[in-house]
Amino acid sequence: MRIASARLPRPASWTAAACLSFAGVGSAQAHVKWFCAYDVVGAPRGLETVLCADFEKLAALSILALVVGGLFEGTVLGAAMTRSLDRVTGWARTNTELMFRAVCGGFFVALWSVGGIILTPELTTTNPALPWLQLAIAVGFLWRATLPFSAAGIVALFAIAASQYGAFHLADYPIFLGLAAYLVLTAFQRDLFGLRPLDVVRYAAAITLMWASVEKWAYPQWSFPLFVEHPAMTLGFDGEYFMKAAGAVEFVLAFALVCTPLVRRIAAILLAAAFVSAIFEFGKIDAIGHAPIIVAMVAIAADDVAVPQRLRTLVMMPMGYATALACFIGLYYGAHAALYGSMAL
Fold first, then answer.
1. 45 contacts 218 by C-beta, under 8 angstroms
2. CA–CA gap between residue 93 and residue 79 (Å, rounded)
């Protein structure tokens, strides 16, 4: 299926799409599996189709954005922006644990109320005991001492979903394992090999979103029915092309979450804005489903940890991006080939 829409002359189209995607990626952040038919077992798009000239240009533009962001962080304006963010996000920073407990507690109450859902809307179940487990998880958020029990419940739900839907499908949601680790570390006031509880969530969120980006490239056709119902999503671009651009934007913002402090705070703000804007388009299901990752983005944006900027860090940023891009694409296609026998090319 191909969505007919306007095309701009090359090379203007890929530049415009990459820029406009920052405005339109919010709608693209709606998890397609929650709203459209999907087939995880079906073969993904061949890499010869994914790794086209447009993809290379969008990747180059992403690297440029990372380099510019890293250089900006070391300027007087970057320092001023950091101070401004520190002032604006003071309440969220002071109450990060409270935000996680309140939002995630509400999330599990919503799952209990709706019923028939394990963790996300497409992960359905007929097990009558699971809603009560979800309610128990929500109750555990009331006290710090009971957070480890809520964490154990989240891991149990993740394992149940994985046993029913397969590990490949649940690779979409490592954010829940990151959340469980955050709860345990917060309860015992511990770090994980030098990583703070928020850092664990940050890395889990980055992995979640980078994996989701590859899925946009591998299965762009899953989103095409959404483009029919919501034609404004594509901003006038061809559906295939828009999904490449949206995936590129999501991947670079996700990778930015593991970069330098100001870069990751800006990325978290843009991602939070994208997820929130998608709620206006897709409603309560999207609001509930993305609540945990939205609160994670707010917490990351409020994080005022300072790290001395080094030239080596700026040099490694593009190399790290290229490595992450190759690894996630290779892992996605390699895992699908190993589990379902698909061909990468």
1. yes
2. 18
pLDDT digits (tens, 9 = 90+) for 281-337: 888 888 889 999 999 999 999 999 988 777 788 888 999 999 999 999 999 999 999
- 312 CB neighbour count, 10 Å cutoff: 8
Distances (CA, A) of 223 to 2, 22, 115, 182, 186: 11, 18, 26, 32, 38
Q: What is the CA radius of gyration of the chain?
A: 20
Distance CA 300, CA 198 (A): 7
Cβ(195)–Cβ(170) under 8 Å? Answer: no
- Measure the CA–CA gap between 265 and 300, rounded to whole angstroms: 6
| Of 86, 293, 85, residue with least CA distance to 201 | 293
DSSP class of residue 95? T
**pTM of the shown model:** 0.90
Does residue 151 contact residue 183 with C-beta atoms inside 8 Å? yes
DSSP string, 235-287: TTS-HHHHHHHHHHHHHHHHHHTTS-HHHHHHHHHHHHHHHHHHHHHH-HHHH
Q: What is the mean pLDDT of residues 1-11?
A: 41
Q: Say whether 158 sits in a helix, a strand or coil.
A: helix
Tell me the residue type at 124: T
As given in the structure block, the two tokens for residue 111 are 């799952």
Between CA 324 and CA 345 the distance in angstroms is: 20
Give the integer Cα–Cα distance in Å for 258 and 343.
Answer: 31
By the 10 Å C-beta count (0-12 exposed, 13-18 middle, 19+ buried), 247 is classed as buried
Give the mean pLDDT of 130-155: 98
For residue 180, what are its two tokens? 């469980």
- Rounded Cα distance between 77 and 83, Å, is 10
Q: Where does 103-144 show beta strands of DSSP type E?
A: none
Measured CA to CA, the distance from residue 114 to residue 116 in angstroms comes to: 7
Cα angle 167, 170, 172 (rounded to 5 degrees) comes to 130
Query: What distance in Å separates the CA atoms of residue 165 and residue 172, rounded to the nearest whole number?
Result: 11
- The predicted pLDDT at position 111 comes to 96
Q: What is the DSSP letter of 39?
A: -
